[in-house]
Amino acid sequence: MTTRTPVKAKPLHATRVPLPDKLKNSDSELVHQEELRQDVGFGTRFTDPYSRLINKDGSFNINRVNESFWDRLNLYNRLITMNWVYFLGWILLFYLAENILFATIYVLAGAENLVGTNDAMFHGAFWKAFFFSAQTLTTVGYGHIVPNSFLTSAIAAFESMLGLLAFALSTGLLYGRFSRPVAHIRFSKQAVVAPYLDVNGWMFRIINERSNQLIDVQVEVSLSRLETKPDGTPYRRYYGLNLERTQVTFFPNNWTLVHPITSESPLYGCTAGDLSRSDAEFLILVRATDDTFAQVVHCRYSYRYDEIQWNRKFGIMTNENQAGNISVDLNKLDNTEPATLN
Amino acid sequence: MTTRTPVKAKPLHATRVPLPDKLKNSDSELVHQEELRQDVGFGTRFTDPYSRLINKDGSFNINRVNESFWDRLNLYNRLITMNWVYFLGWILLFYLAENILFATIYVLAGAENLVGTNDAMFHGAFWKAFFFSAQTLTTVGYGHIVPNSFLTSAIAAFESMLGLLAFALSTGLLYGRFSRPVAHIRFSKQAVVAPYLDVNGWMFRIINERSNQLIDVQVEVSLSRLETKPDGTPYRRYYGLNLERTQVTFFPNNWTLVHPITSESPLYGCTAGDLSRSDAEFLILVRATDDTFAQVVHCRYSYRYDEIQWNRKFGIMTNENQAGNISVDLNKLDNTEPATLN
Amino acid sequence: MTTRTPVKAKPLHATRVPLPDKLKNSDSELVHQEELRQDVGFGTRFTDPYSRLINKDGSFNINRVNESFWDRLNLYNRLITMNWVYFLGWILLFYLAENILFATIYVLAGAENLVGTNDAMFHGAFWKAFFFSAQTLTTVGYGHIVPNSFLTSAIAAFESMLGLLAFALSTGLLYGRFSRPVAHIRFSKQAVVAPYLDVNGWMFRIINERSNQLIDVQVEVSLSRLETKPDGTPYRRYYGLNLERTQVTFFPNNWTLVHPITSESPLYGCTAGDLSRSDAEFLILVRATDDTFAQVVHCRYSYRYDEIQWNRKFGIMTNENQAGNISVDLNKLDNTEPATLN
Amino acid sequence: MTTRTPVKAKPLHATRVPLPDKLKNSDSELVHQEELRQDVGFGTRFTDPYSRLINKDGSFNINRVNESFWDRLNLYNRLITMNWVYFLGWILLFYLAENILFATIYVLAGAENLVGTNDAMFHGAFWKAFFFSAQTLTTVGYGHIVPNSFLTSAIAAFESMLGLLAFALSTGLLYGRFSRPVAHIRFSKQAVVAPYLDVNGWMFRIINERSNQLIDVQVEVSLSRLETKPDGTPYRRYYGLNLERTQVTFFPNNWTLVHPITSESPLYGCTAGDLSRSDAEFLILVRATDDTFAQVVHCRYSYRYDEIQWNRKFGIMTNENQAGNISVDLNKLDNTEPATLN
After folding, report:
1. Do D167 and A171 touch (CB under 8 A)?
2. Chains in contact with chain A (at least 3 beta-carbon pairs closer than 8 A)
3. Together in a domain, B306 and B325
4. Residues belonging to chain B with any Cβ–Cβ distance to chain D shorter than 8 Å
5. Same structural domain, C205 and C175
6. C195: domain CATH number?
7. Residue C34 and residue B197: Cα distance in Å, rounded?
8. Residue range C182-196: average pLDDT?
9. Which end of chain C has fewer CB atoms surrounding its CB within 10 Å, N or C?
10. pLDDT tens by residue, D19-77
11. Domain tally for chain A?
């Protein structure tokens, strides 16, 4: 591991915020200081400079050991969130497996107990049983193959019930997949440090990828970086970053989020090198309300120190044509242009 | 484009509100001013006087360029929100298309491999295959046409599974359509500027179109208009408007929302001509809770300068009959009568 | 109508609360007073002393005139909220009607085009068509009656698709009915005015009727009564009532809600006769979170002046047996016993 | 019952919090004091020292008497929350019962009215009717047994409709079971009293058992214990406990919740014996947002006085391997090690 020189902790007062909901534990200043320390939930022990806290897909960079089988499987979540191609593949596979299983059972129960009008076409008892199983499982039941014994009748009665349940399950899964609220928010690939009014600002840009509307969009940004305790041990520290604007009611086009680097900012006076040395990562949480289903959706993202462009600002994404119509070009989200910092 | 004379920006102090949740960035007054500027999310670049920000159906007046195919299609949203007639039409079309596709496949696999008790009635191999497909897809499977080869049996087994999935999908879509929380709030066609107590007020009126109850109804109104920066460039500015009352617990009859035009109002001293010249638009967001499903629903609307009647007030919508019963007449929502402004 | 003497309006200051979210419209005291007036959404025009605002089932006592057909029908809401017996009756009726309709169509298309193995048993072409329709609609398709012409095959193909859609609809409706979040909160039949600490209190009592848990239960109580304007015209006025406790985290047994009648209360100094003369009604809204589905549920109720017992207090509902187990007896919810007011 | 010596009530001022939402009822100090008393909803009458308020599975320890049959049954809740094995068992049982019922009806209607191609195989009229019923209920309808009279046709038409409804119900139940939002949060088996900064703290530890993410996790802890009124009668009292941190945005690994035992804490100066004598129980409510479905989930738990380890602290659960990857070991959740209190 290379040696890192974490940023020396700034005095706390700059980010000290009043605690409106609880009493100050006034007889211990240490307890009070600890209550003021911001933590987004990762804890202070992540001092490895090579990995990030939040991956680009929004997942967390933490392995879990000794999870139970069912918790690890997390079947419903997996079936709901997996790719459509995989999902349909699993359905097909499951359908085939179920039919092979029941075909085997019918063969064991005596294939002669399934009577068909034209048994020759199936090229063998197994396939007759297989197609009979498929016709039973889907309840299509043409009747050109029928169970011809008590046992096969009973198996078929059970299988058709199972088929209905499996279908019920698929119905639920398909609905669950479709109706799951997901925020399709695209983040600019890079954040920038650009001039902002008479100071500078740390900025990134988001846009709604879909044409369904999001309302009441809220953004929360935290800075995570390594600092050293008075005794010299490195620890990870978190700062909530003030934003020029944390919420918009409507979100019809792009939105550039700006953290003004004023003297109160933990970024005040920082250079690109400082961010790199302290393994800085900007953690972002977006909350919004999907207008179609009136459900709250979430979106996580992070920018690491090496995804920040200094001395560049974002270009304009919107156009106004001759007729006065505004259009926003999603492909221009990542466009930046040079800018001189204040 | 005609020349417009945007309203000169009023000094900020009137609408300056304290920021309870964040620190004042005290070392840059410009940053502080910018934090105070209200923006509902459209940005300042909409300076075209001919188009509105929010269309009458609540959608936004912004085109999107370079959206990806799937994001543009937005299939689920589209199927959920389209008109019932179109929806049922698409279902029928899809059913026909699926049957035509599979009929073709069966014919290619050899129509003689589908055996019927009375093949003559179908007037050709294609239609026999078509009706066999329909009976397979819906799993009705009468059995008077049956697959009579390995290949057609396999295709039919696949088709019946596909039929079940398609049906599962339809179940989900139908439920999604029915259970989607929608606020059926009707807005008065016109807003009015009418006398209000000892001042005047900008008012509009809403009513719940449906008999299911809405509770905890909240209304937020913003004024959007063109103003000029000190350097003379026009830009769009937003003001949150104070309302006499922003929330009601119950919403059993009509509700007239009033913005009192006191000296703190950005409308103070404005004339109809001022509103027109500054391309003023009033943006409205209603949030409510649907009582049946306890879901939060939303509703957007806007009034442009040319949808405001001056010197008129709203008429009474409720009647009390002999027996003392109150009734509210939805047809009277838009009724106004002359009134002299204070 | 009998003559009523509405209570003279108390001076406003007692219930004047600070408005934290908006600026005082300081240049018009009338506007400011109006902003402070509480209104739960019914408005001031309900001056009829014979009817109540909220019916005992939580619905509002307002007729709606000129509602559109679909809004009045409000089909989904109606099907979701109606009694189970009615609901199943409608399903059965719809099934019969659909079969009668299609039977008629098949007969018109030529009943001889449906071929059965034993046509005699149906006692006529209509019933053969009827049962064929039922077997098609449910996709059971035994195959002992089959379509035997192009036309009847096409009708059957359409009907089986319709059957699947109808079934999809039923699936959605059944799920919607079952999963609808409903708060089964039982209110004591009567409210009481009883001694409370060193003053008196207006009290009512609620309990969760079901064994599924409600958490974060919040209660809001408003008093509605007739008062007279300075010019003598009666109008309906609303007061939010302070409660000893407005929220509990858990709701495992009964909860007595108390409005302490201190000098700030609009009930201070009121007699039973005052409440009656001013047509007083106590409007109650309960919000809670259903623990099973984590959904917010609502419940409305009201007590009119004639549903209040004076000089009585609620009896104890809980028992502790020998083994120390606590039990709560739902039948004792309405029990009251005499009590002398302070 | 053994004699218990409840803790003497501490003076109220330490936990008195400002009431922001309502006026102080200033003319009765008793009313004001009562408004300040914290109560999580159990009331003050639970003075039995042998039972706990919240069971380990999160249910409440209160029996309910005279609940109505349907409220007690609470069918949907029960079917949704029961074990999968029981659920599938009930489905199978219901399927068998339905078939036995209809088989009996068909036999009563004349078993000769069901015609099969091979009646011998069923070993009797009942089983022929049973399998016909199964083929009708599941709508598989092979057609090798068919109704051969008006009456049996009518019964079959009814049964197939019933089958579809039962299947619709199962679809809803399966979806409801799968999509029910549940927080799988594991609590450490024991709470500890350990040194915390320069004071001591009461601590417990939680972790998300599943790999789906929870965000905006909020924790609320109340202390419940027996105290004595001035007249010597014991009553149960509740205190909201201040926590070092009540909310985290992300919850990727374990979280140790700390109540600092400063002089304001109701635990200040308490010994293990005090907690035992006053039958102390710590009530915990966790609220979080499930990231997959963006639904709010809840979790209840409690620690009784005999589930608290004194002079021990929690061990570390996370490891950082050579490559710098962090992993968290779920099996170490309950690990504690000795620690000397301040």
Report:
1. no
2. B, C, D
3. yes
4. 139, 141-143, 171
5. no
6. 2.60.40.1400
7. 9
8. 92
9. N
10. 334 444 457 788 888 887 888 888 777 777 667 888 888 888 888 888 888 887 788 88
11. 2
State chain C's maximal CA–CA distance in angstroms.
Answer: 91
User: What are the phi and psi torsion angles at C237 (to 5°)?
Assistant: -120, 150
On chain D, the residues whose CB falls within 8 A of the CB of B171 are: 171
Residues B187, B118 share a domain: no
Distances (CA, A) of D246 to A21, B28, C116: 10, 33, 73
Q: For residues A324 and A200, state if they share a domain.
A: yes
Rounded Cα distance between C151 and B16, Å, is: 74
Question: How far is residue A136 from each of residues A129, A149, A214, B104, D223, measured CA to CA in Å?
Answer: 10, 15, 45, 25, 59
Q: Which chains touch C (3 or more CB pairs under 8 A)?
A: A, B, D
Kindly determine whether residue D325 and residue A48, on different chains, have CB atoms separated by under 8 Å: yes
Lowest-confidence pick of C288-302, D274-288, D307-321: C288-302
Domain final residue, candidates A153, A179, A205:
A179
Residues D118 and D22 in one domain: no
Are residues A252 and A192 part of one domain?
yes
Distance CA A87, CA A178 (A): 12
> From CA A62, how far away is CA A48, in angstroms rounded?
12
Mutate one of C30, C77, C80 to test the B interface: name it (highest B CB count within 10 A).
Answer: C77
How many angstroms separate the CA of residue C291 from the nearest CA in chain D?
7
Question: Which of A179, A201, A226 is the C-terminal boundary of a domain?
Answer: A179
Q: Is the model's pLDDT at C103 over the cut of 80? A: yes
Provide residues of C within 8 Å CB-CB of chain A: 139, 141-143, 171
Q: Between chains, do D139 and B139 touch, taking CB under 8 Å as contact?
A: yes
Alpha helices in chain B (DSSP H): 29-36, 69-73, 75-81, 84-108, 125-137, 150-179, 272-277
Q: Is C250 among the domain residues?
A: yes
Give the per-residue pLDDT at D77: 85
C254 and C142 in a common domain: no
In a domain, B12, yes or no: no
Nearest-by-Cβ selection for A136 from D117, D140, D325: D140
First to last CA, chain A: 36
B134 interaction partners in chain C (CB closer than 8 Å): 156-157, 160-161
pLDDT tens figures, D204-251 = 999 998 877 888 899 999 999 999 888 888 888 999 999 998 989 889
Q: Determine the Cα–Cα distance for residues B206 and A138; give it in Å rounded to an integer.
A: 51
Single-letter residue type at C276: S
Residues in Cβ contact with A152 at an 8 Å cutoff, skipping those fewer than 6 apart: A106, A109, A110, A113, A114
* Mean pLDDT score of chain D: 84
In this structure, is residue C20 part of a structural domain? no
Chain C partners of A141 at a C-beta cutoff of 8 Å? Answer: 141
Domain shared by C193 and C228, yes or no: yes
For chains B and C, count residue pairs whose Cβ atoms are closer than 8 Å.
218
Domain limits for position D115: 75-179
How far is Cα A164 from Cα D136, in angstroms, rounded to an integer?
13
Residue B269 forms part of a structural domain:
yes
Whichever domain contains B91, its CATH number is 1.10.287.70
- Chain A positions touching D135 (Cβ under 8 A) are 141, 157, 160
